[in-house]
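in:
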């Protein structure tokens, strides 16, 4: 089973609302345009999205729906294979409980509007996890997620990633966790020679991992989880590798194993029948120092001394914005969805949420401030590098939200989430 994680960030300038030109992405205007042309569209046209599971960030989905309808339609047509994402690529263990719940609910709502169904699985940004985050996701009806093998804490010291596990979260609540295969995923991600020949990869790597299975019930499940941009962007022509590896046409060679997707495989899974496992709190797939990469000094990211004080400043400002926004929400009842499609099914068919007749809806500034507030908190790409990096935009976002917070009405804003905060969703 192959899973592709597609998290491209919202690249708009928070003052102008447009995506600025990014010279490094030449000959394309910006990196989203380049990645779409090299990866998202080819994989959609080859039908690869129909044979793998994937998650598509709401910010990227919103951009694709206008900028590359062909690629976007490919994702929508493969809705049965999709997992949700929190609305922004926020490192959830570093966020408050209110923000975590809001991110998860906004992500679920955006998923419903785009794919026409309620998600059963969720990809956590950078697979950053702790028990409170899993509890909040489970409370919203999420049944499963994907984690790295080093994030599991098995009771007997042995973690077999070839079978799903159950994480107990309290009375009558649990989460199914699938741990991806670290060796196979690493080879696909970082060893171009490993993916130069799909037949050799299947024969010499996947089949070896499936051998020796002694588990009960269903056969072994081997998951290869990578960034979706790998297949054509990070590694040219790997969309062809993915097509060959997952092709299930009658004339396709018999690999000796079935190609499956996680939503289909886990749709009827009974968590009580799965082995229990703990998790290593506040860990991720991309940092071997917990979540320090996004919050403090870490060997994976040079010079992180600026992160803690800047985050603290953003949190103080965000708390003030939250008070203003919540007061306005209670007074003006303005926390409904900014865009209401005519129906869920029509949204799924057309590929994007529809606006009311007469143009874009007007949205209240307090909710815009809330969205900008969350967007500027610890985020994967922005907080692992220098704050001066042009692509971050977090400081400008914070400045923008502070300007907006005191005024009750204003025009629409593309960074606003699909519904109100916390319990008012």
């Amino acid at each position: 089973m192959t899973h592709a994680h597609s998290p491209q960030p919202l690249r708009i300038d928070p003052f102008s609302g447009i995506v600025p030109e990014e010279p490094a992405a030449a000959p394309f205007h910006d990196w989203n345009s380049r990645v779409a042309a090299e990866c998202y569209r080819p994989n959609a046209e080859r039908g690869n999205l129909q044979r793998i599971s994937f998650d598509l960030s709401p910010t990227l989905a919103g951009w694709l729906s206008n900028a590359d309808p062909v690629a976007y339609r490919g994702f929508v047509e493969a809705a049965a294979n999709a997992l949700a994402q929190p609305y922004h690529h926020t490192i959830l263990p570093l966020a408050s409980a209110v923000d975590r719940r809001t991110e998860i609910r906004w992500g679920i709502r955006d998923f419903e509007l785009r794919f026409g169904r309620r998600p059963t699985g969720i990809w956590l940004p950078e697979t950053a996890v702790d028990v409170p985050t899993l509890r909040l996701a489970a409370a919203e009806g999420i049944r499963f997620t994907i984690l790295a093998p080093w994030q599991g804490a098995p009771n007997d010291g042995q973690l077999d990633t070839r079978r799903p596990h159950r994480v107990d979260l309290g009375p009558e609540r649990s989460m199914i966790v699938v741990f991806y295969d670290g060796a196979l995923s690493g080879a696909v991600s970082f060893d171009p020679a490993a993916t130069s020949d799909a037949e050799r990869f299947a024969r010499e790597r996947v089949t070896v991992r499936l051998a020796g299975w002694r588990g009960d019930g269903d056969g072994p499940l081997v998951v290869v989880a990578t960034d979706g941009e790998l297949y054509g962007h990070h590694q040219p022509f790997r969309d062809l590798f993915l097509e060959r590896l997952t092709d299930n046409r009658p004339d396709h060679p018999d690999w000796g194993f079935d190609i499956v997707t996680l939503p289909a495989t886990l749709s009827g899974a009974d968590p009580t029948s799965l082995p229990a496992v703990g998790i290593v709190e506040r860990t991720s797939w991309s940092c071997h120092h917990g979540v320090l990469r996004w919050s403090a000094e870490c060997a994976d990211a040079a010079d992180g001394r600026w992160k803690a004080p800047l985050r603290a400043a953003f949190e103080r400002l965000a708390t003030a914005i939250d008070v203003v926004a919540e007061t306005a929400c209670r007074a003006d009842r303005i926390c409904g969805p900014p865009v209401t499609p005519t129906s869920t099914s029509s949204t799924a068919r057309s590929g994007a949420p529809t606006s009311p007749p007469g143009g874009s809806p007007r949205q209240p500034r307090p909710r815009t401030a809330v969205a900008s507030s969350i967007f500027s908190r610890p985020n994967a790409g922005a907080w692992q590098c220098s704050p001066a990096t042009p692509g971050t935009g977090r400081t400008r976002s914070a400045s923008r939200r502070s300007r907006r917070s005191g005024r009750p009405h204003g025009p629409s804003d593309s960074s606003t989430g699909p519904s109100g905060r916390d319990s008012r969703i």
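note: The radius of gyration is 21 Å.
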